[in-house]
Design a protein that fits this description.
With about 425 residues, the protein is of the alpha+beta class. The protein contains 15 helices and 16 strands. The chain folds into two domains: about 20-170 and about 230-315, BirA Bifunctional Protein, domain 2; about 330-415, Rossmann fold (3-Layer(aba) Sandwich). The chain is about 35% helix and about 20% strand. Strand 3 and strand 4 form a beta hairpin.
Amino acid sequence: MANPPLQPVRGTRDLIGEDFRGHHHVVGTARRILALYGHEEWATPIFESTAVFARSLGETSDVVSKEMYSFEDRGGDSITLRPEGTAGVCRALVSNGLTQANLPRKVFYAGPMFRYERPQKGRYRQFHQIGAEVLGAAEPLADAEVIAAGWHILQELGISEGVVLEINTLGDAESRDAYRAALLEHFTAHQAALSPDSQVRLAKNPMRILDSKDEGDRAIVATAPTIQPFLTAAAAGFFDAVLRHLDTLGVPTRQNPRIVRGLDYYSHTAFEFVTDRLGAQGTVMAGGRYDGLVAEMGGPATPSVGWAAGVERLSMLLAAAPAAPRPVAVIPVGEAQEAAALGLLQDLRRAGLVAEIAYKGNLKRRMERANRLSARAALILGEDELAAGQVQLRDLDAGSQATIPLAEAVSRLGA
């Protein structure tokens, strides 16, 4: 009895054909644009010590408590497949002794992330992110510039229409202490109506309740105070500077006081690029300032800011994935012409042209293969043409054919 065909694990998928071309286009565009802003690409391991993410995401977060792929390896160490990229970048800065040299450092990353959550449109258990970080910069201009880079990527991808930058401030430590006290008072008054998860958060970190997805919690959150009345003059000035720089850089903004980050090392700017074109999964890029995260990794205080974006969600917004490049088909009429055909094939490829050759078959079958590949042209090498140093160039779109010098074939097709 034949074995049943194996299927991908639930919540994962294969990237093939148009899906991969869209994915590749998003990552390649981000890589190209962020290079213009001075970001260098880093690649960190797909798995890290569990402590890296417990410290960066917080023990009370849904990701740490419910969604991480964590396991004990053969040496007894707790290992986690990375659920996001910023923590690994900050850990790498510390591990490689880069916290004192050449700051700020601008970093770009791209790769797979892993979260055990319910698969749905645009959300997978293995998904992909691109991210940009500016490590070691305390100035509001750093916030504005990294946000502007994200907006530039969305524009370059042709998906910025209908996407809105929503932005908020988390203030400085003094602002957050006052705000946290106000939240504690508000949520304590509604404690009995909170979800079990939020009752735990109330004792540990009431700001985390603002991130709750529970419908009952959301109703209580809607009447909670915002941080604006609790901002110090310095925190308000920082936020005003970010908004002013974004305006100068041509990035439209909409203030949203409900955007928060619950952990103490987050401060000042928090933002999300959102759209209504993806249903419930409306956030396509999000980030903020995390001045204390490098210190959580064992390094010195290193003010930093950055964002991450889901490649799958960005790909879904593309009007269409880029078309596959159309090849040139090289067709020897007989076995005697194959050696010359192979030489021509490699000349085309060295000139940067996609070129294909059918491995077997007569002229008719090789032409059928060329049509299946959607070749734009065919170079036909017959005995008489080869003896005369010529080749038949057939334009497969126009249906025209001409005899040209073999030495001119590459230049004709590269024009």
